[in-house]
From TrEMBL:
4-amino-2-methyl-5-(diphosphooxymethyl)pyrimidine binds at residues 38-42, 72, 116, 147. Condenses 4-methyl-5-(beta-hydroxyethyl)thiazole monophosphate (THZ-P) and 2-methyl-4-amino-5-hydroxymethyl pyrimidine pyrophosphate (HMP-PP) to form thiamine monophosphate (TMP). One of its GO terms (molecular function) is magnesium ion binding. This is Thiamine-phosphate synthase. One of its GO terms (biological process) is thiamine biosynthetic process. Its cofactor is Mg(2+). Pathway: Cofactor biosynthesis; thiamine diphosphate biosynthesis; thiamine phosphate from 4-amino-2-methyl-5-diphosphomethylpyrimidine and 4-methyl-5-(2-phosphoethyl)-thiazole: step 1/1. Belongs to the thiamine-phosphate synthase family.
Amino acid sequence: MFENRFDLRCYVVTGAGSVDEVVHTASAAARGGAGVVQVRSKPISPEAMRELASKVALEVARYSPTTRVLIDDHLHVASSLMREGLPIHGVHLGQDDVSVLEARELLGPEAIIGLTTGTLELVAAANELSDVLDYIGAGPFRKTPTKDSGRPPIGLAGYPPLVELSKVPIVAIGDVTPADVRALSATGVAGVAMVRAFSESDDPQQVAENVVANFELGRLS
Ligand SMILES: Cc1ncc(COP(=O)(O)OP(=O)(O)O)c(N)n1
Ligand SMILES: Cc1nc(C(=O)O)sc1CCOP(=O)(O)O
Ligand SMILES: [Mg+2]
């Protein structure tokens, strides 16, 4: 869908912290070149997600108008805020969330919609949705304390077969650190997504700059 509408190379997924801390981390990473910020918080009520996503989106747009802001899980919050004109661009859906098709019908053709995968079977299933899906997450790269997906770690060697199979761009996720970026980029993934690498950093802008630079180096190898 609509090539070049978004830059998946450096993909921030928000993590632990106060609203102000999450907003600061997201906007600093966007300033550093993060092409996507996904607002994720678990558990969170729709009302609290509405507040958090609005604040993140407005601050990110101030510093990086090209950075796309997505909402995790909460399709109707995203739909409502997008209709109100907030700079929010789509959703990331899990296997247990509403269907990609329902999200596409509600959000329209311009929205960015991502889906969680992480095995060859889930990637094959996502291929059936490639006309309404923009990208897939594939994890965990390594086991991570941030989320237990129940799926086995993919590892570096596991990404080339997923990339080969997938009809849409792949974002690697799960214990990814800046030191992993060059090698992951060389596997052919379109980007890397990180939670703690940003939420636990005292300079998320620098982390994003490092990720983008190393992602480009990996593409050359
Ligand atoms: C890019 C990306 N990949 C995977 C996920 C999955 O995380 P989470 O939302 O906790 O789990 P599900 O909702 O998919 O079950 C993600 N958020 N982003
Ligand atoms: C949100 C998420 N999804 C995963 C998956 O495997 O689908 S792993 C993950 C957590 C990633 O956090 P960190 O960068 O702190 O390891
Ligand atoms: Mg989710």
